[in-house]
Amino acid sequence: MTVVERREIALVDLLDRLLAGGVVIKGDVTLRIADVDLVRIDLNALISSVNSNVPSPFGD
Amino acid sequence: MSGLRYVYAVCRPFGAALQAQLTGVAGDPPRLLAHGDLVAVVSRVPEADFGEEALRAHLEDLDWLAGTARAHQQVIDALTAVTTPLPLRLATVFRDDSGVRTMMERREDAFRRTLDRLEGRVEWGVKVFVEAEPERPAAAEPAPRPVTGRDYLRRRREQSRAGEDLWTRAEGFATGLHSTLSSLADDARLHAPQNPRLSGAAGRNVLNAAYLVRRDASEEFVERVDRTKDDAPGIRVELTGPWAAYSFAGDAAGEEEAGAGS
What we know:
The structure holds two protein chains of two kinds. Chain A is mostly helical. Chain A is built from two helices and no strands. Chain B is of the alpha+beta class. In chain B, the strands form two sheets. In chain B, strands 1, 2, 3, 4 and 5 form a five-stranded antiparallel sheet that branches. A four-stranded antiparallel sheet of chain B has the order 7-8-6-9, covered by helices on one side. In chain B, a hairpin with a 2-residue loop joins strand 2 and strand 3 (38-45). The two termini of chain B are 42 Å apart. Classes of the chains: A mainly alpha, B alpha+beta. Chains A and B meet through helix 1 and helix 2 of A and strand 1, helix 2, helix 3, strand 4 and strand 5 of B.
């Protein structure tokens, strides 16, 4: 198909799909990602994005 | 063959070769593991990084997560160019090939059903943002101080009314857009709105949707999104894709459908 030219995929769009989408396999896997505390991943992501250069959004 | 097995996707067998330079999440090129009339796309990963404890720790490291997610996506993208893959959740890792085969054996009917449902279809992401924040005057140019308490209250009222108008308009716009796009799609999913602190995107995300669209209907879908972009001042629409059908691969949906007797 003709693909619309795309910019680099934003990580947050990718994680929407890779962490919330896709088939979840139960059973013989080393770790189910559903078991991982995604809230903590969010928190870490938040901290690193605030640290990088964005002014703190908590001003108000 | 030491190491664990990372599985990206399950597909029907396909004739085309994958890109030669394609590397998987830990540098090992993905290969195809056939089982019956299905193939799993697999690469080797070290236990030191993908065993339970290590993986758990890594998943909380945003840089590691980002690198792994991008590598995973590259493989899925390459597959999407030659077939319709059924993507697995990030970091689905088995002990060995036989673990992968057992999994495929157990789920082959569900895989076939889902692959049939997704065949020839891709996912498009559409997000709607409310751009303006009327209540926050530009920091460099502070509004003149209100002379009286009454002025102050009047200004606050006007600001909050403008905010509410935009908000109401944005909600109406997003609802209308979602219904239009759903009518062009075979299926739709709503993701949680993105946290602006996480996405770095300007404005507030009011719609974060995914649509399952036939490849041959995708051009019309994209045009429809493009056309609505300029409809509403203060509101921004973003399109991503085409993606593999990540948001439509889920077990929950499959089980619900099966439960509904479809």
